[in-house]
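Hi U.,

Before I forget, here's the chain from the pilot set. I'm dumping it here mostly so it's searchable later in email.
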Amino acid sequence: MGQLKRFENRDITGEGIVEASIPPNAISAYLRVELPEATAEAAAEEEEEEDEGEGDAGGEREEEKEYLEYSFRLGRLEPSDTPRGARQRLVNLGLLPPGGESSGAIDPPTAAALRAFQIQAGLRPTGELDASTATKLAEIHDHE
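Structure:
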């Protein structure tokens, strides 16, 4: 495993955003979030209820912290003037759900997302991946 960076509450914004520099050659990331005590206690209570009747003679349990864990694959984006690159950016901007078409063509959901992006960006809403749309997509996505 590569180098790990630990963030404390002071490194997280009020909206729960963690900002961190990621080395350009990184191919994966891992995030482990400690649940607040109230959430962890509720999970422990559920576990205790499930264990009732199973003959647990152990008495008091040591409190265990509860975590949510996430793994991320990191990689490069295709150029914004390609259908795949446009789709990657539209997904990252929340205008297109993940998955979908992987061919070189613009499918109907991607065209709809392009139209929505063009409207937001003040471009003519054609649903086509023209040069001005690709440039604006890269400008907005890649510099956020």
